[in-house]
Write a structure and sequence with these properties.
The structure is a single chain. The chain has a domain at 76-212. Strands 1, 2, 3, 4, 5, 6, 7, 8 and 9 form a nine-stranded antiparallel beta sheet that branches. A two-stranded antiparallel sheet has the order 10-11. Strands 12-13 form a two-stranded antiparallel sheet. By secondary structure, it is an alpha+beta fold. It is built from 26 helices and 17 strands. Helix 1 (2-17) runs antiparallel to helix 26 (549-559), helix 21 packs antiparallel against helix 22 and helix 23 runs antiparallel to helix 24.
C-alpha cells in the first residue's frame, strides 16, 4: 500500500506540477515564431503583465465604447450612491419571521441582519455585484472576508415586477448555521464568486490566520480578463513603424481570439444552413468557459481551460436526461451538446464580444446562418410571424429561471420532442407555453409538419440506464463505441456505465483513453476507479502523461492506493 502511494506521489510533480507536456511546449514555441519580415517588431521577452483597460482604450476606442455599461463592465463596483440601485432608505424587509434592515449613512450603506451566530449585526456594504435583472451586495463580516448577501434588489421596472427586495432562498427558511445561510462558505465572495467578476484576481487565503487578503488588477471584467495580460501586445504595437502583420503570433497575447472579418458563414447551392468557409484557429469558447460553465477550479497558472478546470458532465442533478438545463450550469456544458458547436459556431458569432449583446435582434440573428425563406416562416415556426411563440429561441432555446428572476436560455439548441420529454420527466418548449395542453397533443402537432420519429441522440439510453432498464447498458455502450455523440455525452456515458458495473467498461476505457477530447479522457480515469488494481493501472497509466493537466490530475487520483506490486517492471 505504502509503496504504491509513494510511487504515485513521486510522479505527481512530474505529471501535474510541470503544467505542460513536451507536446504543449512545442505548440507554444511554434506560436511564438514569426516570419522573417517581422523583424521590425521583436517579440518581448519574459511573461506578460497587465496594463489595464484605460491603456487598451487609447487604441481600441470603439471596442471600449461597446464595453462601457456592459454586464462585464458592471460585474462588480464599489458601493456608492451612483452604483447602488437598491433602496437603502431605512427599508425593513421580512423573511419568514426574520427582519432585515437596509440603511444608509451619508455615502455608506449597510444591512442589519442575523449573523452566523444567530445574533443581530450590522454589516457594511462594500461592493455591488451584477446589475441586471438583479443586483447583489457584498458585505464584510470580518476584515477582508466578503459575503454575498442573500437579499437582492430586483432591477427590473415595476411593470415587470421589479424595484423590490427579494430573498434568493424564498421557499424555505434558512437559519444561521445552515449551509445555505448567507454567512456560509457557499456565499463567500473570496472563494466562490470573485474570480469571475474581476480581472487577474488572487484569492490570497492565509491558512495560519484563516483570513483573506484578496486582490485584483481591475475590479470588473476588463479587456485582459478575456484577452489575457497585454504588456507584450502593447510593446509590439508601439514598436517603431511596426506593420500590423508583423506582430507575433496572437498579437502578443497568450491565446487566439478570432477576427470577426475572417469568419465567413456562407450558403452552398441548395443548402438552407450556412457553413463556415473562412476561419482561423480560435481559443474563444474555452476563454469564455471558465466563467460560463459548471466546473471545478484545479488552480494553477495555466490559461488552458481543460488544464485548470474540470467541467461537469451531464449529471442528472444538473441536466435532464435529454441534456436540457435543470440546475444552474452557465451555458458551456449545454453548448458542447449542440450541432452549433459541432459546426464550428463560437460565442462571438452571436454575441458581440465587447458589449456582450446579441449581434442582431430576434430571428434576424438566426437568419444569418439559417435561410429565412425556409425557417423564418409560419410553416416552420407553427406561429404567425410576430406573435408569441414565433421566435426561434422560443422553441430551440427555452428559458429556465434561476435566482428567482433571472431567465437563462438553454444553449443546446435542441429540437422540441414533447413525447420524449414526457416519458423521461423533462420539460418541453411546447407545453411550457401551452400549459393546458398535453405532450401527446404537442407531438401530434409536430408530426403533422415534420417527421417526429427522428430519435434523440442519447436521451433514451441515458434515461434507461438511470432507471435500471435493460436497454440502458447497450445504449450507452453504443454511444461510446460509435463515437458520434458529443464528447460531453460520451464522457457521461462512461460514468453511467461505471455506475452500472458494466462488463463492457474495461474495453471501452482502453479505447476511450485515446479519445481526442480531454473531457472523455478525464472520465476514463474516473470510471476506472472501481476496477481491480492491475486493470486500473493498465487503463490509467497512459493518462499520467496526458498533455492536459485535468486529465493527469484525475489519473493520479484514480491510482491512489494502488500497491507497488500491481505495477510492472517497466512502470
Amino acid at each position: 500500500m505504502r509503496g504504491g502511494l509513494a510511487w504515485v506521489l513521486s510522479v505527481t510533480f512530474a505529471v501535474i506540477g510541470a503544467g505542460c507536456s513536451k507536446k504543449a511546449d512545442d505548440r507554444n514555441a511554434a506560436s511564438d515564431s514569426k516570419p522573417a519580415r517581422a523583424a521590425v517588431a521583436p517579440t518581448p521577452k519574459g511573461p506578460a503583465s497587465y496594463v489595464g483597460t484605460p491603456k487598451c482604450a487609447t487604441c481600441h476606442e470603439g471596442q471600449h465604447e461597446g464595453w462601457l455599461g456592459s454586464h462585464h463592465d458592471l460585474a462588480m463596483q464599489t458601493a456608492t450612491p451612483e452604483t447602488v440601485l437598491g433602496d437603502f432608505d431605512d427599508v425593513k424587509v421580512k423573511y419568514f419571521e426574520e427582519t432585515t434592515r437596509f440603511g444608509r449613512e451619508g455615502d455608506e450603506f449597510f444591512v442589519e441582519a442575523l449573523g452566523a451566530d444567530g445574533e443581530p449585526g450590522r454589516f457594511p456594504v462594500i461592493y455591488t455585484f451584477g446589475v441586471e435583472p438583479l443586483q447583489q451586495y457584498l458585505v464584510e463580516i470580518q476584515p477582508g472576508r466578503l459575503q454575498s448577501f442573500l437579499f437582492a434588489w430586483d432591477t427590473r421596472s415595476k411593470e415587470e415586477g421589479g424595484q423590490r427586495w427579494f430573498h434568493l432562498q424564498p421557499d424555505e427558511y434558512v437559519e444561521p448555521g445552515d449551509a445555505l445561510h448567507w454567512t456560509a462558505p457557499s456565499y463567500n465572495w473570496n472563494y466562490s464568486c470573485a474570480d469571475c467578476h474581476s480581472t487577474a484576481l488572487k484569492k490570497n487565503y492565509d491558512r495560519t490566520t484563516k483570513r483573506y487578503s484578496t486582490e485584483y488588477f481591475e475590479i470588473n471584467v476588463g479587456c485582459e480578463a478575456c484577452h489575457g495580460a497585454g504588456s507584450r501586445h502593447v510593446e509590439l504595437a508601439e514598436a517603431a513603424n511596426a506593420a500590423k502583420d508583423s506582430l507575433s503570433a496572437n498579437a502578443g497575447f497568450d491565446r487566439r481570439l478570432p477576427s470577426p472579418t475572417k469568419r465567413i458563414w456562407s450558403f452552398s447551392e441548395g443548402k438552407s444552413i450556412a457553413s463556415l468557409s473562412g476561419s482561423e484557429p480560435s481559443d474563444e469558447t474555452e476563454t469564455c468557459a471558465p466563467c460560463h460553465s459548471r466546473r471545478a477550479d484545479l488552480g494553477g497558472a495555466s490559461t488552458g481551460f481543460h488544464d485548470r478546470y474540470r467541467v461537469a458532465a451531464l449529471d442528472e442533478l444538473l441536466y435532464y436526461d435529454d441534456g436540457q438545463i435543470r440546475d444552474e450550469v452557465y451555458v458551456y456544458g449545454s453548448f458542447l451538446q449542440s450541432k452549433m458547436h459541432a459546426a464550428g459556431v463560437i460565442c462571438s458569432d452571436c454575441h458581440d464580444g465587447h458589449s456582450t449583446k446579441l449581434r442582431w435582434d430576434g430571428n434576424a440573428l438566426c437568419g444569418r446562418c439559417h435561410d429565412a425563406d425556409v425557417y423564418d416562416t409560419a410553416k416552420h415556426l407553427f406561429h404567425e410571424i410576430g406573435t408569441p411563440g414565433s421566435l426561434c429561441t422560443d422553441c430551440h432555446m427555452p428559458e429556465r429561471t434561476y435566482m428567482v428572476n433571472d431567465d437563462r436560455a438553454d444553449h443546446r439548441f435542441g429540437i422540441p420532442r414533447p413525447a420524449l420529454a414526457s416519458n423521461i420527466g423533462a420539460p418541453d418548449a411546447c407545453t411550457d407555453c401551452h400549459a393546458g395542453r398535453s405532450a401527446k397533443w404537442a407531438e401530434r402537432e409536430i408530426a403533422v409538419r415534420f417527421d417526429s420519429r427522428v430519435a434523440h441522440p442519447f436521451a433514451e439510453a441515458l434515461h434507461a440506464a438511470r432507471t435500471q432498464r435493460p436497454e440502458g447498458e447497450p445504449g450507452l455502450v453504443e454511444l461510446v463505441a460509435v463515437g458520434k455523440a458529443p464528447a460531453i455525452v460520451r464522457a457521461t456515458a462512461l460514468l453511467e456505465l461505471r455506475n452500472l458495473g458494466s462488463p463492457s467498461l474495461p474495453a471501452l476505457l482502453m479505447r476511450a483513453g485515446g479519445d481526442p477530447s480531454p473531457i472523455v479522457r478525464r472520465s476514463v480515469a474516473v470510471a476506472a476507479r472501481d476496477m481491480p488494481p492491475e486493470q486500473r493501472v493498465e487503463v490509467v497509466r497512459p493518462l499520467l502523461r496526458d498533455e492536459v493537466r485535468s486529465v493527469r490530475v484525475e489519473a493520479v487520483a484514480a491510482l491512489l492506493g494502488v500497491r507497488a506490486g500491481d505495477w510492472t517492471a517497466t512502470d
